[in-house]
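Reading group handout, session on sequence-to-structure problems. Before we discuss, look at one worked example. The prompt was deliberately terse, the way you'd type it at a terminal:

> structure N-acetyltransferase

The input record follows.
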Amino acid sequence: MHETPTDSTGIDEILSDGRVRLRPLRAGDLMTHANGCDDEVNAWSNGGRVSSLDQHLAWLERNARAWHDNEPVVDLAIERCDTGEHVGVVGIQRELPYLAPGEVNLTYALYGGQRGKGFVTAAVTLAMRIANEQGSVTAFLIRCSQENRKSAAVAERLGFSYVGCVVEDSEPLERYVLSRSSQAALA
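And the output record:
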């Protein structure tokens, strides 16, 4: 079970770089998250489907429990340190069928109006630190649609290597990998 430190403002911060902080998701994020899931978020992370408020709430609560119970798949809130605004989510995923032992898949989504400011790059860097603290990581993966150049650009900025296109659930996905040796070179 994770014990999440609470700072003097009552924010359950897991990790921060002074620009963004990651914290567990909670039911109180419902309206921010639901409103943040615009057409772009839905297109790339939800197959174009728009979730209901009940579906968003169930997802938020599931991720809050996942963090608390130290489960292998969890999404965390991304907040701006300067304003405290919740601007997106970042996911740390282990033990999925397409992952080898030690591999961690990273996911991310920024809400409308927050893109292009470096927040997701900072958040993914923090997520990698968290994953390394949680256990052995042999490689990080980022998978994205061939048309999602913004997501691919995040992987490229972070030094991930493009390893090709894979087909998962009949969807072609670009696959980027950052190996343990590449991680050491970046440190």
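Points for discussion. First: The chain is about 35% helix and 30% strand. Second: The CA atoms of residues 4 and 62 lie 17 Å apart.
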